[in-house]
Amino acid sequence: MSNAIQLTLAVGEATGRPVDGASPVSLAEAAAIAAVAAEVGVAAIRLVDGGAGRTLDPTVVGAYLAGIHGGVGFVAEVPTTHNAPYNAARRVLSLDRAAGGRTGVALRAGGGDEVSEATVAASNATDAAQRWAEYALVLTRLWESFPRAALIGDQESGLVADDALIEPINHEAAFYRVAGPLDGPSSAQGRPVLVADLGALDPTAVARSADVVVVDRERVAGADAALTAALRRAGRSREDVALLGRVEVAADDPAAAAAVGHELRAWADAHRLDGFELVPAGGAEDVVTVLRGLVPQLADAAADSPPPTLRAAFGLRVVAEALR
Amino acid sequence: MSRQLHINVNILNAGVFGGSWRFPNTDGTASYRIEHYTSIAKKAEEAKLDAVFLADSPLLDPSIKHRTGNNLEPTTVLARIAAQTERIGLIGTLSSSYNDPAELARRLADLDHVSGGRIGWNVVTTAGPVAARNFGRTSEPEHASRYRRAAEFTERVIADWAGRTQFASPQGRPVVVQAGGSSDGRRLASRVAEVIFSADQDLDHARAFRTEIRNGAAEFGRSPEEIVVLPGLSTVVGSTEAEAKARRELLDDILPDAYARNRLASQLGISLDGLRDDEPIPAELLIHPDEAGGSQSFYRVVKEIIDRERPTLGRLLKKLSGGGGHRILVGTPEQIADDVETWFRAGAADGFNVMPDVLPSGFDDFADHVIPELQRRGLFRTEYDGMTLREHLGLGLPAVPAAAHERHLLDPYQEGQVISL
To answer: Strands, E, within B180-319: which ranges?
Structure first.
């Protein structure tokens, strides 16, 4: 089977300190990297959020870069902290629609936001994983609240949309209350891809909503089995989720790339990984070296046209099955 | 050089009329795709406009059945436009009621950096229960408390921008924009806004408004010359007056009636059920603008029209079919330029926030024919002198508003009611 590749990138000042293992690159460098990434068949570039002043806002960068290079997907990190779920759902879906179904969000577990907290009675609910699970559920439901089929645009009869198909989600739980629906239709891939990181989150927390799960080397043993079991309990199939192994890679000479590629493929086979999240050490030049040298070793060389959606690039259904 | 006009285009999805999306030779759902916005922005840049503007509310427009609505989040659209243009200013509306100030400050400032200093933020409070329910509330905060939050929110955002040490803005800080129609809105505008969008039907009233805002700014220690007032202006351009009028009549004809009545009722916060199109609106249905929960600017304009003209409901619906209560100019490029010049020279406006009748065709007509006419009269730039939005607008970088100014917003009896955030 082919391996999906997600590349980690921190976009900010090129001289900045590493963020989550990734050395920052400038916006112009990121654009050049995106071109190479599309060329070699990378599924998505994960835009790391190092926080204000360390990286540029990933959703801004994602929208900007997608306006320059449409052939590669972008996954923007968004923390629950400071982001009301309605706003995040709307922003990410807008990105995805603008990108023709090539956008995802890596939702990071964190705290709350000023707007939401003003409306939920002070509670004992503080668990970040529980918040994440609830937030992710709200995102996925909002993304499905205005189905693409509802947008009719019949000029003759004067019907813009079949509003019977557009439904509020009326979510009310421990952390959030959100009525919905969203103001725009679902994208070409149904829902944006939702990426979750094992570690801060366990398989149970991510099973209901995640499309891509990232696991690092220290936790990879048993991850597939645990995820499969959690998905089954949530009524979902392992085939509907891509499991990626996170690996830090250094720019090496071509001969070393072949050996590294072989080792990584063996690692993927051993742990039933669907692909890799590459965290390149070094700056923009090193990233390009990794892309050109290593990615062809890992990705399906037979791909001759870009996948129609980000989901397809991850080996998932081209359009998401509804989670409702 | 002599004072020149500032002109923005409001990319109000399909156009300012409720039936714009049905206009002949128009793709009815174009406004649901990103290319609609990028192509209009490129046209605006070619025409040397100051900025494109995106209105927004975080909700699904209840009129969605019959009218296209705004449907893409503004910062994602503006970032996409920034990637594909070089100089056009980029103004987005983002709610002070339903955003987190730390997050919004960072996003806007990062976007400003990425765009090369072209961002303006239109500060709005968001009215209505529909939006409120998207953020966990059962009803909307009352008007005055929305504006207290807006003042505090804006102050925090600007202070955050001023404190940045990374990803500097080429224009110093994003430009602060506000639509200051209500009493609360005008105070906020005078206090912090650099560009004010207004809604006025009458030249004398517009001139008085501009004077009031500038005088209010002086009271906050600001220079009146550094405020740009831009009334909204809907335009219907024809190569002849007859053609323009025919275009306007067609737009009225294709307006879905259910939409028009529902919109007016919702905007005014009253019920129009049972009222026939050939009846005037009873005076008792209308109360003082500051007491209404909805859009203050719109309410005031509608009330003034009713007081002045005593229209039937049907006539009022037609007069307002452009929505928002903004003036609608129907005519040839020369006629439209005449009106624009008159308001400008009278001191009623520093320019206009133009809302074309149909997008993109109405804007193409405006850019291709009205702008050249204004340029021929020496009223509008023929080239950009700068790269940033501040440079286009002729604005310097104002001092950061001091927190102590907060007290000016409240009289002694209200002070105790300030809500801590």
So the answer is: 195-198, 228-237
Quote the strand ranges of A49-180, DSSP E.
73-79, 103-108, 151-154, 159-161, 171-172, 177-178
Environment class of B23 (CB within 10 Å of its CB; exposed 0-12, middle 13-18, buried 19+)? buried
Strand boundaries in chain A, DSSP class E: 4-11, 24-25, 44-47, 73-79, 103-108, 151-154, 159-161, 171-172, 177-178, 193-197, 212-216, 242-249, 275-280
Q: Which residues contact B280 (CB under 8 A, 6 or more apart)?
A: B306, B310, B311, B312, B313
pLDDT mean across residues, chain B: 89
pLDDT above 90 covers a percentage of chain A that reads 81
Residue range A57-80, pLDDT digits in tens: 999 999 999 999 888 999 999 999
| Token pair of B138 as six digits | 């059962």
Would you call A161 and B65 a contact, using CB atoms and an 8 Å cutoff? yes
Contact B328, B356 (CB under 8 A): no
* Structure token digits, residue A119: 């409306």
> What is the C-alpha to C-alpha distance for residues B5 and B49, in angstroms, rounded to an integer?
10
Q: Given this model, what pLDDT does residue B47 score? A: 98
A-facing residues of B in 156-175 (CB < 8 A) are 164-167
Contact between B229 and B181 under an 8 Å Cβ cutoff? The reply is no
Listed range (A30-39, B84-93, B309-318) with the worst mean pLDDT: B309-318
Dihedral sign for Cα atoms in the order B383, B386, B388, B391: negative
Tell the residue number behind the tokens 């499309």, with chain if given.
A211
Interface A:B, Cβ pairs < 8 A:
170
Contact B107 A57 (CB under 8 A): yes
A85 touching B, CB under 8 A?
no
Structure tokens at B236: 């219907």
* Interface check B281 vs A, CB under 8 A: no
